[in-house]
Design goal:
This protein is an alpha/beta fold. The chain has helices spanning 15-30, 45-51, 59-64, 82-96, 158-174, 191-203, 216-225, 237-250, 291-303, 307-322, 334-344, and strands at residues 3-11, 35-40, 68-73, 101-107, 122-128, 132-141, 149-155, 178-183, 210-215, 232-235, 258-262, 270-274. 47% of the residues are buried.
Length: 346
């Protein structure tokens, strides 16, 4: 029986509870076909407080030996600034393992009521994950004086833009054949015009795909007013970050927001995580919704090639929400939702 080695990084706050829940479901879904071997790493803000770093030296190379990474949540702003926790763990992993495709599905699960009148939408947001506005290029001078200057430089490379767009085209081809490329090229006349040009160049290679370019403000409006018109949406690091939080909102909340950080050529492990954050304010209450983490785990199984097990996990989630369990924030305990999904898992 095949065994997959998984690095578990529960992280901070509710990350520990939802990771535990997800792992229990994944192990049950795997039991009849393959094995999952998990190794837990305590890398977190608590680890930072004790050691002065979010993960130890050599942490990246330690993770490289695994087939995939399942992450809970990172961050505890009252203890460690977000700029430290993010740049000390999450971003280094994404960049070191060339996880350039961040994938987030947005659709309503059975029994979940979103804030919109629209219900029949199924959007796959693909966010460029390693460069763009989050490249980290820039600096500050004359800090604390009236002459202080802060510069943040976005980096867009042809290789980086082309590969994320090509990934988006391939996803659209496997789905409903529509791709929306998102920029702000009327205002950002260098990087975003560059993105638009590459979109049109690649469109010639995919004549079967209906391609539309949107400005970010128009896309925000469309996701609210006509989400059912969208299939695959591709955007830069910053725009994709914002759009996917909107996507989470229209699908009922962050408790349903799953994500995958994919290395498409499989030269390094991919990482899977719910995007709800560590939620320190409710971490002690036992009411965190584990569905986003479990959905992320299903995406992990799918990426590993275990499509049957991934489908069983998603079917169990849908059977659970259809019964009204886990559909309202704070209504059900984490353990109640987990137990229901476990019972529904074949």
């Amino acid at each position: 029986m095949k065994t997959y080695s998984i690095a578990l990084v529960p992280g901070d706050g509710i990350g520990t509870a939802v990771t535990e829940a997800a792992w229990a479901v994944l192990e049950k879904a795997a039991a009849r076909d393959f094995k999952l071997s998990g190794t837990t790493f305590p890398w977190s803000c608590a680890f930072y407080e004790e050691n002065g770093m979010m993960m130890p030296e050599g942490g990246i190379e330690t993770l490289r030996a695994f087939d995939a990474i399942l992450l809970g949540a990172v961050g505890w702003p009252a203890k460690v600034p977000d700029s430290v926790s993010l740049h000390g763990l999450l971003l280094p992993i994404r960049k070191a393992f060339v996880q350039y495709a961040n994938i987030r599905p947005h659709r309503l699960l059975p029994g979940v009521e979103g804030p919109l009148r629209a219900e029949g939408f199924d959007i796959l947001c693909i966010r460029e994950n390693t460069e763009g506005e989050y490249s980290g290029a820039g600096g500050r001078v004359h800090q604390g004086t009236m002459d202080e200057v802060a510069v943040e430089t976005s980096i867009f490379t042809r290789a980086g833009v082309e590969r994320i767009l090509r990934f988006g085209f391939e996803q659209a081809r496997a789905r409903r054949g529509r791709l929306a490329s998102v920029t702000k090229s009327n205002a950002q006349k260098y990087s975003m015009v560059f993105w638009d040009e590459i979109t049109q160049q690649l469109a010639a290679e995919y004549p079967d795909i209906e391609v539309t370019s949107y400005h970010i403000d128009a896309m925000v409006a469309r996701m609210v007013m006509a989400p059912e018109s969208l299939d695959v949406v591709v955007a830069s690091n910053l725009f994709g970050d914002i759009l996917t939080d909107l996507g989470a909102a229209i699908q009922g909340g962050l408790g349903f927001a799953a994500s995958a950080n994919i290395n498409p050529d499989r030269s390094a492990p991919s990482m899977f995580e719910p995007v709800h954050g560590s939620a320190p304010d409710i971490a002690h209450l036992g009411i965190a919704n584990p569905i986003a983490a479990i959905w992320s785990g299903a995406m992990m199984l799918d990426q590993l090639g275990e499509h049957g097990a991934a489908g069983r996990v998603m079917a169990a989630i849908e059977r659970t929400t259809a019964q009204g369990i886990g559909v309202s924030p704070g209504k059900d305990k984490t353990e109640t939702i987990t137990a229901a999904i476990l019972a529904a898992t074949d």
